[in-house]
Amino acid sequence: MKYGWPRPERIKFLNEITPLENTMYPIPFQGDFRSFDVYIVSIDLPKYRLDNVRTLAAQLEHISKNNLSNDYFSSDSERDDVQRVQHGILLEMGKEAGLEKHLTNLSTRQTEPLILTNDGFLANGNRRLAIIRHLYDRDPKKYSHYQSVRVIILPLCDKKDILDLEAKLQLQEDYKARYRWTTHALAMRKAMRDFKYKPSVVGKMYGGLKAKNVEEAINALESAESYLLSRKIPCQYSIVNDNEYAFREIVKQQKRFSGDIGKMQQFKESAYLLIDEVGSERLFREIKKLADNFQPILTQMEEDHIEIFTSQWKTENEMKPKEDDSSEVFSVTSYKPIKTIDINNIGDDVKKDIRNTIRDTIQREENFKAKEKREYFVRDRVREAHTILQDVTINLTKDMSKEGFTEQLKEISHLVIQIQKWLNDNS
């Protein structure tokens, strides 16, 4: 299988190729809908575009698992070995999306052209081409109709144009269906870092999100990255693809501990222990309860598992720069030791025991709250009713209607008598 012609051959062919007669295809490009000529090219000609947000997470995971250089996918897009790896990534994604099943049908014919840059890289249609190449390589006779593909060729443009095209053709369309949450967050962060886009601009590009939603997604991603790094499996995003709401909840709940960096770290480490357990359902709710009951949980953990804690030095406070009389600027940072969970030096059995401690304590505290709620149910509801009636009397004016609540007042009087009788019976 070929993964693209050499660059000189691609460019020469694309410069000399003749378009199909009376065949145009419109796409959103450079701020407008533009119609482009359609061409026929060999499936061997295009190169996969490696700067593809759809495959960004998988690329980072491949680099991490195989201990490759960070620029493995960006240093030379022409390399056959890199193109081969990208083909494998795209092939798996195409299968997951059901493209193989669709394209295997012999009655299927290409109707939507692939989109090439002026130098022969795929701006859109990478997964489709991977499946087509795979099928043709497996059985050239059966899939002879895939020997060539329809393409349109973009004029010379910059990376922003390609990113915008990719967002319009792929991300907005697939936002809820096919894109993993980590892929979306990575794409949005990349757009903000590489092109200095504001969150509001990125949100419009990727699914019509508000700026707040973009920031929340990126914060959740970075929380997930922190978790993966703590487990010494950086960038293995596939592990956390089912835990989006858990990491969103961690980001939300850790704000409770913003005044205590030590407790915030302990909360995150405890939440990470819950995430470690494969198949834990409704994890985000459990993390909410972890935050709600964290002090008694922490006390119980220290009583039951004091051996898991280790002291580390953490930044306590970084003071804002101040100017003295000589106008020199000083920055003062102080540190204090805090207890953290030494997660990398405990076994799976101990982790399981710690999770049991967390969950048992949550259950105990929730039962206590429920009991307390039941015990003081009458008191609390009477106080609520008293507050409401006080609000009514304070706001009485002559112009207010006096119709429609006489019966309710009589019923209130009757209910008060019932409550008073209950109170006297229990005194």
Beta percentage is 5-15%
Percent in helix: 40-55%
Radius of gyration: 31 Å
Backbone shape = elongated
Order of helices and strands: HEEEHHHEEHEHHHHHHHHEEEEHHH
Q: Work out the helix count.
A: 16
What's the number of extended β-strand segments? 10
Low-confidence stretches: 316-332
* Overall pLDDT confidence: 88
Main-sheet strand order equals 3-6-4-5
- Total domain count: 3
Structural class: alpha+beta
N-to-C span: 89 Å
What composes the largest sheet? 4 strands, mixed
Describe this structure in words.
The chain has 427 residues and is an alpha+beta fold. It folds into three domains: 7-158, no CATH class; 242-375, no CATH class; 377-425, no CATH class. Helix content is 53%, strand content 12%. The strands form four sheets. It has a four-stranded mixed sheet with strand order 3-6-4-5. A two-stranded antiparallel sheet has the order 1-2. A two-stranded antiparallel ribbon has the order 7-10.
List the helices and strands and how they pair.
Layout lengths: L6 H10 L7 E6 L2 E6 L1 E4 L13 H10 L14 H17 L2 H6 L9 E3 L5 E3 L1 H13 L9 E6 L5 H16 L6 H15 L3 H7 L5 H20 L13 H11 L6 H16 L6 H10 L1 H11 L4 E10 L3 E2 L5 E2 L2 E9 L6 H28 L1 H18 L11 H20 L2
Parallel strand pairs: 4-6
Antiparallel strand pairs: 1-2, 3-6, 4-5, 7-10, 8-9
Helix pairs in contact: 3-5, 7-9, 8-9, 9-10, 10-12, 11-12, 13-14
